[in-house]
């Protein structure tokens, strides 16, 4: 059972790492390969709740491009091997 938890945590870490590295590569080489920068943005703009004694701001923005998706696919292929 312990090996399964470690395996799940490792998989989540590798997926996030694949998204980050793929996104950085897409932004770096996006000038030469415009296809890598194609993607979509998911999220909502920040909403602020201002009370007298505290201020609460909540916002979310997720940017997924083709480079990030390719990074995740490469990570999943290496994870299964």
Compile the SSE list and pairings:
Blueprint: H1 2-29, E1 39-50, E2 55-65, H2 66-80
Antiparallel strand pairs: 1-2
Descriptive report:
- The protein has 81 residues and is of the alpha+beta class.
- The protein is 53% helix and 28% strand.
- The protein has two helices and two strands; from the N terminus they run αββα.
- The protein has a two-stranded antiparallel sheet.
- The protein is flat and about 55 Å long.
The gist of it:
The chain is built from two helices and two strands; from the N terminus they run αββα.
Radius of gyration: 18 Å
Q: In percent, how helical is the residue content?
A: 40-55%
Strand order in the largest sheet: 1-2
Give the biggest sheet. Answer: 2 strands, antiparallel
Q: What is the number of helical segments per DSSP (H or I, 4+ residues)?
A: 2
Topology, number of strands: 2
Q: What proportion strand?
A: 25-35%
The oligomeric state of the chains shown is single chain
Note poorly predicted spans.
none
Q: Give the helix/strand class.
A: alpha+beta
Helix and strand pattern: HEEH
CA distance, first residue to last residue: 21 Å
The gross shape turns out to be flat
Q: Whole-number average pLDDT?
A: 86
Core attributes:
alpha+beta; single chain; 81 residues; flat; two-stranded antiparallel sheet
């Amino acid at each position: 059972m312990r090996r399964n938890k470690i395996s799940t945590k490792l998989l989540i870490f590798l997926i996030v790492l694949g998204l980050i590295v793929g996104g950085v590569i897409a932004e770096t080489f996006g000038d030469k390969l415009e296809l890598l920068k194609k993607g979509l943005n998911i999220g909502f703009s920040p909403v602020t709740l201002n009370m007298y004694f505290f201020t609460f701001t909540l916002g979310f923005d997720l940017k997924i491009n083709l480079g990030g998706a390719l990074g995740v696919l490469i990570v999943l292929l290496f994870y299964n091997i």
